[in-house]
Amino acid sequence: xxxxxxxxxxxxxxxxxxxxxxxxxxxxxxxxxxxxxxxxxxxxxxxxxxxxxxxxxxxxxxxxxxxxxxxxxxxxxxxxxxxxxxxxxxxxxxxxxxxxxxxxxxxxxxxxxxxxxxxxxxxxxxxxxxxxxxxxxxxxxxxxxxxxxxxxxxxxxxxxxxxxxxxxxxxxxxxxxxxxxxxxxxxxxxxxxxxxxxxxxxxxx
Length: 205
Fold this sequence. Notes:
It contains eleven helices and seven strands. 32% of the residues are buried. Strands 5-4-1-6-7 form a five-stranded parallel β-sheet, with helices on both faces. It is elongated and about 60 Å long. 46% of the residues lie in helices and 15% in strands. The chain folds into two domains: 4-15 and 86-197, 3-Layer(aba) Sandwich (Rossmann fold); 16-83. The mean pLDDT is 96. Strand 6, helix 10 (168-176) and strand 7 (180-183) form a beta-alpha-beta unit. The longest helix has 11 residues, at 55-65.
């Protein structure tokens, strides 16, 4: 029986667009592609999200390695909040309905320490009963250990959790951890997927 609903943050609770904002860091597109290859790479993102090194140190290392991009690398840190476009359509009202129906709501995200500024800014995060953040646990999805960490932290049974994430690889991690899970695309699709797991559940979008 599903009792706990677990949500990724980016592209599930809040939307983001790195490239749109990054274009504003450059004049006439100079070095834009090189910059994107650095900061949007899996290696860079995973280092930031893992939290073993402070984000400031990671950026300083990249500034030393790419001095011609030092100002723009600093902007990645200073203007990080601008990457977030807002709450995902329909999700706050949906979470409010789910909470009223007795579900416990949790977050499970790969994110650097910058996440707390985002969480303070958007009301949807106040609806969560708890969360696990990769940079605080030094674990990142899809490592099964981070899903187990959520369960141990809040006393949850994996088989009673339904996890939603926009990345299929992270869904695979949740399934391996014993959770039910589905790839997130829209609030309406989420409702359809959840109702398949909870017969008789009625929700409106």
